[in-house]
Amino acid sequence: xxxxxxxxxxxxxxxxxxxxKPQYLTAKRCAFHYKVYRNKISTLKTKDKAEKVRxxxxxxxxxxxxxxxxxxxxxxxxxxxxxxxxxxIEGCNNRADTVEHSMGRRGFADQWARxxxxxxxxxxxxxxxCCNFHNLELERxxxxxxxxxxxxxxxxxxxxxx
Length: 162
Ligand SMILES: [Zn+2]
Ligand SMILES: [Zn+2]
Prior knowledge:
Elements: E1 9-11, E2 23-25, H1 31-54, H2 62-80, E3 98-101, H3 107-115, E4 127-130, H4 132-140, H5 142-148
Antiparallel strand pairs: 1-2, 3-4
Bound molecules: zinc ion (2 copies).
């Protein structure tokens, strides 16, 4: 006799046919059915993992991807035009490498564009050729932004609510 306090459970396996003789049980199953049970679980887990790898949730919607491709092409065409070679900011004669979205793309302008089925992102009418420096400045400097990001809706300067 050993001192072991762990007594193996003996009883009827839940997967064996009813009335089978009592056996040592693990997770209510005989050795054979326990093995079957474990295999089934690991197969399910592997399947689950494989499914997750195969079908990653797209981070960018199809529509957005399409727009992004269109944008890349339009942008190159826009910046290649003779009239768009220089930055649109007064007194700046830097080469225009970027596109400034003169309407902005948020808030009121965004709502207006939605209502009129216009893409502020893709509509070249609202684009301005801009140098790298001023593109960043317009994002950082709200005064500069107010001066140059004109509202094409009212024809007046953009009103920024603070
Ligand atoms: Zn069994
Ligand atoms: Zn500039």
